[in-house]
Specification:
alpha+beta; Alpha-Beta Plaits; 3 domains; six-stranded mixed sheet; four-stranded antiparallel sheet
């Protein structure tokens, strides 16, 4: 037998390297197809007797030890793992043929996408699958490190450049919103081809997303950042949310360690397959719940807008018109596993990110995917930037913020989910650590920001928590503070100056009253704005004019099944 693992390389620049949303969406579709649909098709072509059912489903009772030519062990999280049967030579030839077919398909259909494939001989009855799997993944890592990156031919004689990649253009792709057709490389043409509607039918990328989380009638997913709900002359920010599961590789190793003997290979396959499928299902349900909640808010505005509950604030998203209704200001780009990236109107970024993390925890707990039958957690980074900000840099910021949240979680030994965000009103210079040191630190080591924060308030971390920030936002958006921009600006300046300045502000601007209470464990915050080295209100003030809360959670009964 021969064990083969398929993975992709450098997918972040491949997916997020364009400032056109449809190109990002198309790239995501191609990456998913390479380790999904195309890999399944390659197995079917090489090994007629396999365990692949309708579409890309797996037949649970079709096993390699019962004479199959090949068995897909599991597919998920960007990996595709397949075992080819027969004697050593036949299995090796099947693996080589599979690699050749899949590689050729990727070269033709997804130019620019880099693949990594590794395989190794295995005896099903003598070798422990957990050990062989680890060996193949180590070999895959070595191949990735030693990969010889090709230098693209930038053109001979007189050539025109692609507007997105800078590579030689080989054709034209249709423009958007009245924009003329523009020059594009093979890579961009492939991405646009799967993200662009054909003959009045949804694009392949939209069909894939609709299958994963179906849209309610009358709404469409945007394929352009301009359709995210920007308000002309007032607000044109988008939020890129990148969420990643915590300790996922550790969870996989725990499953492998449970079935570590050769006679437990079948049990390991079934356990890994169950985990992969259940994880995708939980992530789908979490995203669906977010979508249902967003749709419910839109319904309050007759399907045409999403507004802050306090109408006096005039924080409102007017939905862009679509061919058959309106665009929801929300578009998942990477989805299907614990790694999720979506883009939305900037005023909804934090609300949707927090809701997704809560739903992910609840759905994985219901499926008992965590250790000892518990749930899983995740960390999210939210980058809020202008809609025309370079998307690759915005995504890189969201990914860095996610890593910041993960680092905080590990350092503080937090059990739950965490999130971190940055609101970029202008350009960015330096890492998030450098930005925080430059813009959010006062005196020697005092921090204006609470970030990163835990998703829920805990006894160990009652201050650095999202509910604390949310309580501050809600307080400053109420009658005593809303519409009083000068008062809030004066408090913001006083917080930078320190406790004495805050006490003076309370006398001069707040009739001596305390600041809004935001956490029961911080007695000094309402008096001085500071407790220890943390300021309790600066995060809320930064978001007060932009944040739209989404009250409550989406009902599980409303989380509809995806369209078939």
């Amino acid at each position: 037998m021969w064990l083969v693992v398929v993975d992709t390389m450098q997918i972040q620049p491949y997916i997020f390297g364009s400032n056109r949303l449809r190109e990002n969406v198309g790239a995501s579709y191609l990456v998913d197809a390479a380790t999904g649909e195309w890999a399944f098709d390659a197995v079917k072509e090489v090994a007629p007797r396999n365990n692949i059912g309708d579409g890309s489903s797996l037949i649970d009772d079709a096993w390699i030890e019962n004479g199959l030519d090949a068995e897909v062990l599991y597919a998920g999280g960007g990996n595709f793992v397949v075992l080819f049967g027969g004697d050593d030579e036949k299995a090796k030839q099947s693996a080589q043929a599979f690699t050749a077919i899949l590689s050729e398909h990727v070269l033709w259909e997804a130019p620019g996408l880099q693949m990594a494939i590794a395989g190794q001989e295995m005896d099903w009855y003598r070798d422990a699958l957990c050990e062989k799997r680890d060996e193949v993944f180590r070999l895959l890592a070595v191949r990735k490190r030693k990969h010889a990156w090709s230098a693209p031919l930038l053109g001979l004689s007189v050539t025109a450049s692609c507007r997105s990649t800078g590579l030689p253009a080989t054709g034209l792709v249709p423009g958007i919103r009245g924009e003329p057709s523009y020059l594009a490389s093979d890579e961009i043409q492939a991405k646009v081809a799967v993200a662009w509607p054909q003959q009045n039918r949804p694009s392949k990328a939209d069909q894939r997303l609709q299958k994963f989380i179906g849209l309610p009638e009358g709404y469409s997913y945007p394929a352009d950042f301009e359709d995210m709900g920007a308000t002309a002359g007032e607000y044109s920010h988008i939020a890129i949310v990148h969420a990643d599961g915590n300790s996922m590789s550790q969870r996989i190793h725990e499953i492998c360690d449970t079935y570590a003997r050769p006679d437990e290979n079948r049990a390991l396959v079934l356990a890994l397959r169950h985990f992969s499928i259940s994880l995708a299902q939980a992530a789908r349900q979490a995203l669906t719940a977010v979508l249902v909640r967003l749709k419910r808010e839109s319904d309050k505005g007759s399907g045409m807008s999403i507004a802050h509950p306090n109408k006096d604030l005039s924080i409102k998203i007017d939905l862009a018109s679509a061919k058959n209704g309106y665009y929801l200001p929300f578009r998942p780009i990477v989805f299907g596993g614990d790694d999720v990236t979506f883009v939305c109107d900037g005023r909804l970024g934090l609300s949707l990110a927090a809701m997704y993390l809560r739903e992910f925890e609840q759905r994985t707990a219901a499926a008992k995917l965590g250790k000892d039958g518990g749930g899983l957690t995740a960390c999210a980074g939210i980058a809020i930037v202008k809609s025309h900000y370079p998307f690759a840099r915005a995504y890189a910021l969201a990914e860095e913020l996610s890593k910041s949240a993960k680092s905080y979680r590990r350092r503080e030994k937090i059990a739950g989910s965490c999130l971190d965000w940055h609101f970029a009103l202008s350009g960015l210079s330096g890492s998030i650590t450098e930005i925080r040191a430059r813009e959010y630190m006062v005196r020697k080591n005092d921090s204006l920001t609470l970030r990163p924060v835990t998703l829920a308030t805990t006894l160990e971390h009652p201050e650095n928590a999202w509910p604390v920030v949310l309580a501050g936002i809600e307080a400053f958006q109420k009658e005593d503070w809303s519409g009083r921009g000068n008062k809030i600006k004066a408090l913001r300046d006083a917080l930078r100056e320190g406790t004495a300045a805050v006490e003076h502000f309370r006398t001069a601007f707040n009739k001596g009253s305390q600041l809004p209470p935001v956490s029961p464990g911080t007695n000094e915050w309402p008096l001085t704005g500071w407790q220890g080295r943390y300021c309790g209100y600066f995060d809320a003030i930064e978001l007060v004019d932009w944040f739209i809360p989404l009250e409550g959670e989406a009902d599980a009964t409303l989380a509809t099944e995806p369209a078939s």
